[in-house]
Amino acid sequence: MNEKIKPTDNYYLYSHEFDQIKSFVIFFDDLIYNYELLTKMKYILKKYKRFEKAENDDDIFDREYRYSAFVLYVSAFYSARTFKAIRPHYQFLCRGNSTVSTRVACEDHEPMFLESVQMYFDKAAKISGVSPKTISHMEAPDCMLKVTFPIEVDDKVEIITGYRVHHSRHLLPVKGGIRFSPEVEEQEVTALAALMTYKCAIVDVPFGGAKGGISVDPSKYTIAELERITRRYTVELCQKAFIGPGTDVPAPDVGTGPREMSWIMDTYRQFHPNDVDSIGCVTGKPIPLGGVRGRNEATGLGVFYGIREFISYPEVQKHTGLSGNIKDLSIIIQGFGKVGYWAAKFFEKNGAKIIGIGEKECGVYNSNGLNVDELFKYRLSNGSLHGAPNVEIIEDPLQILDLECDVLIPAALERQIGLRNADKIKAKIIGEAANGPTTPLANEILLKKGILIIPDLLLNAGGVTVSYFEWLKNLSHMRFGRMTRKWDELGKSQLVELVERNVGHKLSDTEKEQIVHGADESDLVYSGLEDTMIRACMETRKTSISKEVDYRTAAFVNAIEKIAAVYEGSGMMFMN
């Protein structure tokens, strides 16, 4: 008889499953009953109220959460070393019944990046009002390309591995960056592709979500070697139809920039010499090759716009005790690359005090404020923040996250705030400039502490927004403002002259220039990005208030409902 066994108050496990788990763990003689870990996981298990067998395929939530919690429950009792050994058995038990991956947990017993994204998604899906059928279709990635190819380096042959994941092609082209990092692997790329789908939906950018990467450390290769790797990867994308202005438009990410985008575009053009829109096959290009002014700083500027918008809301000011004035903010930023630097730059320019900056080698702190440009130039010339003048050096870069401040901006990599340090966070607001910097377990701890979290899929959407602008520029084959700037200036100039005649007062040349100035490309890009971020923040706020949920859940709900409208309206779910 398949009776139910009740190992915890809120979790039912069917006896045949209990027998299966016993059958393979009994062979391990080093099992550890981990009370500390079980305590950490208990509050997660308490969230799940039903773990009965789903009565039908539509009832995916019970099925998905039942198996997910099954994994959490078992891993709570055994050591990380043993967990690694029995991980394949989890996959066997969950196949066809769960989105649980083979990497559901890691050394610190927290969900991996992909599982974290799925947990956030599932939480929002339950309150979104979207049908389970649509949800199940939406969550699964559409397709994944994995390529391997040989590259000759120092008279030796290296096998390079690259990925490109299309998470959702409900809208085309799909959009997402390409990163060069030794950490690149299938699960990470899939998680990032999913975030791109939701991110585009939140800011109303009409793209599907994608992501790519090559598992290399770019610092260990010459420029010529990196070019060969990039071009060969692009050849693979071209041959598999994973790139094109109407299909898949990559962009820079960690370890890549305008240089790599130029190589990709040039390679694509060799395969498609008659494609008049080939310049739009990739974004983040140098200006002379079709890039758009403002793309380099776009993500950091979007972070600034988003945080500025949220602190202007009365309920946020009441909750945090902040005045709503940028000039009153103390800010700590983890990550001093393209995103972190530009975010720091815009906050400093508008009067905020940057008191701490962290990088992989160390952190720097000064309660009176740091000079962002001086520090950036120092690190550029010295390769490290060590030895920087007029700062306190923090040897453990992760400790920069624990320092007291008004706003903490993680702008590095994923999973920087977890169980190990969530209790130590003293910031009033966390603005997630990086992708996935906060784990689900840490997220719950931070919310209980009353810390407001502005989520990554909203706050760092400035990059894809301006990439969209660049793509539009490439398809129109014309610089923004080219047809309108002088006409606008003429109209304003005539208006100024009319006012001067009527009031009998002449403006100075400087005043007149400020008024008459017509919008150039960077002005239009900044304006479009500001409007996009403000609207997305307002929508997130509205959903958060109406559904009484945190900002992350609200952002996911908005994304899910927008994507579902496309799926259900077009009938894409049922296309073969």
TrEMBL record:
Keyword Disulfide bond found: no
Top-rank taxon: Eukaryota
Keywords: Mitochondrion, Oxidoreductase
GO cellular component: mitochondrion
Reactions catalysed: L-glutamate + NADP(+) + H2O = 2-oxoglutarate + NH4(+) + NADPH + H(+); L-glutamate + NAD(+) + H2O = 2-oxoglutarate + NH4(+) + NADH + H(+)
Primary enzyme class: oxidoreductase
Alphabetized PANTHER family for the sequence: GLUTAMATE DEHYDROGENASE, GLUTAMATE DEHYDROGENASE 1, MITOCHONDRIAL
Protein name: glutamate dehydrogenase [NAD(P)(+)]
Organism: Cetraspora pellucida
Lineage, opening ranks: Eukaryota, Fungi, Fungi incertae sedis, Mucoromycota, Glomeromycotina
